[in-house]
Amino acid sequence: MSNRQERLPVQVDPFRMAEARRILEGEVPLRQMKRLAALLEDDSGQARVRLEFGIDEMGARFLQGTIRATLAIQCQRCLEPMPWEVDLELSLGLLHPGEDEARAGVHEPLIVDPVPMHLLDLLEDEILLALPQIPRHPLEACPAREYVEPATAPDWNDPARAKANPFSVLATMKTATPNEE
Predict the structure, then answer these.
(1) I need a labelling partner for 13 at 20 to 30 A (CA). Which of 34, 82, 136, 154 fits?
(2) What is the pLDDT of residues 61-74, one digit of tens each?
(3) Alpha helices in the chain (DSSP H)
(4) 164 φ, ψ to 5°?
(5) Using an 8 Å Cβ cutoff, are 34 and 59 in contact?
(6) Could you check whether the bond before residue 116 is cis, i.e. omega within 30 degrees of 0?
(7) Are 83 and 125 in contact (CB under 8 A)?
(8) Under DSSP, is residue 12 helix (H, G, I), strand (E, B) or coil?
(9) Domain map of the chain by residue range?
């Protein structure tokens, strides 16, 4: 059976797509992803997407693919825009609500509810999960590098840094045995 390549639709029935072994490719404007666009400095870019639906040798329905984009996010050190490369590999096992997650096999379980699912929501969720919690330029490339002291790990073997153990007082306490009367 040959794979058929299609454009990216708004909604898909992933179970039917898996049975038909469909491949979808295309670009999605970042501004269409409203939650993501709110986090970006510039939402004029595109996300390049390739998705393959199928059924593996164990009978698990899956969605595998890639999402690639360059996002303009704000560096939290200097508050300037910075590029962030997104290069995601997806491997999702498609499940109906209530279906045992073990049926996803080697794929990450994805419970599909409702059917048809909004493809854009899935893509946006995956990109949002890939964003760093605190985005920052590499220190050497950050405009604020001259204001940041390089972080150094404390030398725990330095006797001057040694602090009294707050539990050391317990070592001096004796274990009292109850008096028998």
Answers:
(1) 34
(2) 999 999 999 999 99
(3) 14-20, 34-37, 119-130, 168-172
(4) -65, 135
(5) no
(6) yes
(7) no
(8) strand
(9) 4-141
